[in-house]
Give the backbone structure.
Amino acid sequence: MGLLSNRVERHEIKPGDHIYTYRAVFTYSHHGIFVGGSKVVHFRPERNLKSMTETSSNWDDPTSNPCPTFPDCGFRQPNCGVVLSCLDCFLRNGSLYCFEYEVSPSVFLSRIRGGTCTTASADPPETVIHRAMYLLQNGFGNYNVFQNNCEDFALYCKTGLLIQDKQGVGRSGQASSVIGAPLAAMITSPLKLLMPSPVGVATVTAGMYCMSRYATDIGVRSDVIKVPVEDLAVNLGWTCQEEEIAEHETSDRQITTR
């Protein structure tokens, strides 16, 4: 990987690596965990999975466009957004990039675009693969673009870190970038009256943007805890949600029988 780009070749990635590719002309990136054998486990909005049969351009679902290489490509449990795909279907003809861990603060701040690196340490590959395969069978909760997205999934698989504050920004660097940009612009707006030079305003805005991203990185946040994947459902409140659904179903049955 170079200084300005995390782009890699296929032969360079190893099982347990956090990989990503760009979608919609670099509008956003899609992340996953390479588990070996040219297979990737990744997290997607469930509604997109359901609607894949409507278009043949979505390669992650074998029912819409069967993968010619792997019969199990597109495997997922019912009502689950975690998917097992082959590397080709994951990339969709896009370039391959490898997410970096344990980068220095200076390197992190030099990356203008979020969702490429973190200062947090990664766990051993076997632990990462275990988490990914466990979540393939048990799910990763409901997809949320700001709090529980594909990058959050990959970051959890690599680190086991979970955000305690469920109302705040998730682990995703992309999400913090989206929030950080308008925040930086808002904070630096009054400085336009004090700085006649547009270059000065732009420099301060860029600095505020980078610092806001750094403050939400899981490697420096104080509201993260290490959670075993087997206990993830309880920590995310999935068990409570399942109990509430069961209670509602029981109540509905009782009303129907009366």
Observations:
- The first strand starts at residue 18 and ends at 23.
